[in-house]
Amino acid sequence: MIYDIVIIEDEIDLGNVVSEYLKLRGFSVQWFKTANEALTYYAANQLTNKLIIIDVQLPDLNGFDLATEIMKINKNQPFFFLTAHNEKDNRLRGLKIGAIDYIAKPFEIEELVLRIGNIIDKLSNNSSDRSGDQPEFIGIADIKYNKKQLYVLLPDNNEVSLTLRESELLDYLLGNLNQLVKKKDILLALWGNDDYFNGKSLEVFISRLRRLFRASKEISIENVYGLGYMLKVK
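Now predict its structure.
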C-alpha cells in the first residue's frame, strides 16, 4: 500500500525538498502552501492511509487552528507539526490538540523520513489487525480497551477514541500494572530519548489518560514524584 502524506508548508524550497524526497522514498505526497487549500482537499478526500505534516506558521491560518479544524472532521486523524518554534508552550499546545509528534526546523531530512516511517508502521499494524466482526477488548477493571481499533469503552458505555501515542502509553503502563514505571524508561521506549521536551510531552499524554480514567472508580495513574508513574487497579 502506498501511504498518502499531506504536507502543508508555505516555504517553497523546503516544501519542494520534503515532497520530492518523500516521493523518491515511495510515498504518495500532496503538498499545499495554505491552510485553506489543505482543509478543502482534506474535507473532500479523507483516506484511511493518510498522515498529515503541518507547518505552524502558515499565511492564512496557523497550524494549530488548521489541526483543530481537521480534528473536527476526523478526530482520529494522525498528524504532526513541522515548525521553527521549539518553545515549551508551542510544543505543548500542539500535543494537547492531538499531535503525534513535533519536529523543529532545521532538521535532517533522514530524521523526518525515519519518524514518518515509524508512525506509518504503527498505523499500518493497527489497521491490519482489525479483523472479524466482533471487537476484541482488554478488560481493565471497569473499563474495556480495544487496542486494535484505538478506543476505550467507559463504565457508562461511552466510547472514547485514543490517539496512537495514548494507546502506546496505555499499553506500556498495562504491561507494568500496579508497578512503578520510571519516566526515563517510558521516554526511551516510546520517544527514543529522554530530553526535556519529550518529558513534557509525556506529561501531556499522562494527563489525557488521567482525564479518561476519571470515569472509573477502580483505575488511577499515580505520580511517584521524581521517579515515574504507576497504573493502579483496585
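The first strand starts at residue 4 and ends at 8.
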